[in-house]
Design goal:
Length: about 650
């Protein structure tokens, strides 16, 4: 093809065809066009800035949601290169980065490049899915500007726009997500972004990430995260609302030619043995993988050896098991490697075998040294593990007894359960309903073919504060386990679940939210995959009712009430605030809350399990004060909920 004199060159057209592919199948590049995909756009730009930080060229990233809903990401990195690109003679490198798929990475650089999952698809994808993008680059003493419209069409070509402030370099990317792509909406959720930025700040020691919300409801709120202790601070943060077993936070790091690992750890007095959180190239690996395996193996070996060498375990004693040692452990494992292989159901399991040996060797040597150098702490750790081992043996006995009694392996169902007639888990739903009377209404209201009802009375046992042997004596816990039908803890088998939707139905008040949280904690701790795979939902009974021409109308929340008043300005009848599910009869309950055609269910997703861990602990743990404050300030907006 020859060069045209038009504004579009042949290369421009080729480039636009690439971006067109992204617009045709956005899901392939950002996972979905719902809220998760929308937020991915922000992460993509921020990830690029974080890459600059990892390469040692950037110390500050600012993310601002502008009044009109656009997102602006500023960094003080080197600035996207502005010179001519070697492959595309008529384009600058910056234009290539913004318009060519997968060109975002460093050209032949030697950073640890991300190559898997949904991450690292490139800023060009953000361009393709935005109605407008503006880029400012401070580099070589000049300020450069370029803009795009309608999914990546060049608007203003890269041009110098005056001088950059003295000695300043950096990139600003401003983008307006395209409502034609994100049909569910283009509203960013501040808490979702904040959780992610906090996590990134922990994983990139010394990097400051600031978030400013400039929208009406954001009140110009500014939040900054910067952790000079890196993942040591992360561990401390996760443990703040728990009671630490000792003050010190352990830390070690190691590397070889191809990869590096850093690990921070501290034990608390709690009983959760699921406190290991791992990351690969700054991406949360919630399904674990080789790095976690290496750590666990070495941890079990080193602590057993220490306990034997120092007389905490006798020759004749059985060894401590991994779970005994992990009880109360909070650890952050962060690895960086050149080509991470992300596997598993949610592409969040690290598959690289080579990292296992590095982590295992590093933990073997450094943890051994750490225990030798910190005998007081080492003694507390081994003592706790020995106690956990005793409890484990007691629990086994209790578990066997429970099995015999209520047939947790599926032979019998709890008496309180009103099951559905369908035997197909995929279409079946289990409603867990607070209180017997509401349970009765739900039973009458339900679609008996696909909806099962399990009433739960009072507050189920707080699972964060008790060991499993105690939990199993609780009848509510037993009923839950056998109704769901897939076991619990290590033995939980997602393949066996009897319902694909577990719906929590509790009152919309503080008590209801407490019960909901207790249930969520139980499910998260004992049936984690159920939550991670998106099987858990929260029903939303309406908050208000009012009368229109003698018939009752229900309104979901304050927002719905305002909308109703706007549409019916003459309405003067009162709005009753519904106190509980018990106030509705079964028809009303069906119409407002259970009818699949009309209901709105909130899907519970754990965005960042490590941060969620802290939230759960705050809610359920020993620290009564922080629990009270948390429930009061977050009764409605539970942080780990995403819609
Ligand atoms: C390509 C090459 C280099 C940096 C970047 C892209 C870059 C991209 C973004 C996106 C947001 N902020 C960014 N900062 C940098 C390497 C630059 C060099 O070698 O000088």
């Amino acid at each position: 093809m020859t060069q045209t004199t038009d504004s579009y060159s042949a290369e421009d057209i080729q480039v636009l065809e690439g971006l067109e592919a992204v617009r045709k199948r956005p899901g392939m590049y950002i996972g979905s066009t719902g809220p998760t995909g929308l937020h991915h756009l922000v992460y993509e730009v921020v990830d690029n800035a974080v890459d600059e930080a990892m390469a040692g060229h950037c110390t500050q990233i600012e993310v601002e949601i502008l009044k009109d809903g656009a997102c602006e990401v500023r960094d003080n990195g080197r600035g996207i290169p502005v010179g001519t690109h070697h492959q595309y003679e008529d384009l600058s490198a910056a234009e290539v980065v913004l318009t060519v798929l997968h060109a975002g990475g460093k050209f032949g650089g030697d950073g640890y490049k991300v190559s898997g999952g949904l991450h690292g698809v490139g800023v060009s994808v953000v361009n393709a899915l935005s109605s407008k993008v503006e880029v400012e680059i401070d580099r070589d003493g000049k300020r450069h500007f370029m803009s795009f419209k309608d999914g990546g069409e060049p608007d203003q070509k890269l041009a110098i726009n005056g001088d950059a402030p003295k000695d300043q370099t950096g990139t600003t990317v401003r983008f307006w997500p395209d409502i034609q792509i994100f049909k569910e909406g283009i509203d960013f959720r501040a808490n979702t972004l904040l959780e992610r930025f906090q996590m990134m700040a922990f994983l990139n020691k010394g990097l400051e990430i600031t978030f400013i919300d400039n929208r009406g409801n954001g009140n110009n709120k500014k939040t900054s995260y910067k952790y000079d202790g890196g993942i040591k601070d992360f561990v401390q943060h996760v443990n703040t609302s728990k009671e630490a077993l000792f003050e010190k936070v352990g830390f070690f790091q190691d590397q070889d030619d191809e990869q590096e690992v850093e690990i921070a750890f501290q034990w608390n007095t709690g009983f959760n043995s699921d406190g290991i959180h791992s990351f690969a190239n700054g991406i949360s690996t919630t399904e674990g993988g080789m790095h976690e395996q290496g750590f666990r193996t070495a941890l079990t070996r080193v602590v057993n050896k220490y306990a034997r060498d120092n007389g905490q375990l006798n020759k004749s004693d059985d060894g401590l098991q991994g779970e005994d040692i992990r009880e109360g452990l909070t650890a952050i494992i962060s690895v960086r490697l050149r080509e991470p292989q992300f596997e598993g159901q949610t592409k969040s399991k690290l598959g690289n075998v080579s990292i296992k040996s590095l982590v295992e060797k590093a933990t073997g040597e450094h943890l051994r040294d750490w225990l030798e150098e910190n005998p007081k702490e080492a003694k507390l750790i081994t003592q706790k593990a020995v106690q956990a081992a005793r409890a484990r043996i007691a629990a086994r006995t209790a578990r066997d007894a429970t099995r015999r009694k209520s047939a947790l392996d599926g032979a019998g169902l709890p008496g309180k359960l009103t099951d559905c007639s369908s035997k197909d888990p995929e279409e079946s739903e289990l409603y867990i309903v607070e209180g017997n009377s509401a349970g009765g209404s739900a039973k009458d209201a339900r679609d008996p073919r696909i909806m099962a009802i399990l009433p739960i009375r009072g507050k189920i046992l707080n699972v964060e504060r008790s060991r499993i042997d105690k939990m199993l004596n609780n009848t509510e816990v037993q009923a839950l386990i056998s109704a769901i039908g897939a076991g619990f803890g290590d033995e939980f088998d997602i393949e066996k679940i009897r319902y694909h939707k577990i719906v929590l139905l509790a009152d919309a008040d503080v008590d209801g939210s407490h019960i909901r949280t207790l249930l969520l904690t139980f499910l998260y701790r004992q049936m984690k995959e159920l939550v991670l795979n998106g099987h858990v939902y929260i029903a939303q009974p309406p908050l208000f009712s009012t009368e229109v021409k003698k018939s009752k109308i229900y309104l979901k929340d304050e927002h719905a009430r305002e909308l109703f008043l706007k549409e019916n300005p003459k309405h003067k009848a009162d709005f009753g605030r519904l106190k509980g599910l018990g106030e509705m009869n079964s028809d009303e309950l069906w119409d407002t809350t259970m009818d699949p055609e009309k209901r709105t269910l909130l899907k519970v997703t754990v965005e960042q399990a490590s941060i969620a861990d802290e939230v759960f602990s705050k809610l359920m743990g020993e620290d009564v004060e922080s629990r009270k404050t948390f429930i009061q300030t977050n009764a409605k907006d539970v942080r780990f909920l995403d819609i």
